Amino acid sequence: MAKMFSKDKKPSALNTAIENKKRTENFNTSNFNVSLKDYDSSQKYGSTYRDWQKCGLLSKMFETLSGYCCRPLIEQADGKKFTIYGDFPPKERTNFEYPKHVPEDANWARIHIEGAAVIAGHVIQNTFYIVFLDKYHSFYLTKKKAKIK
Question: Is the pTM higher than 0.85?
Answer without folding.
Answer: no
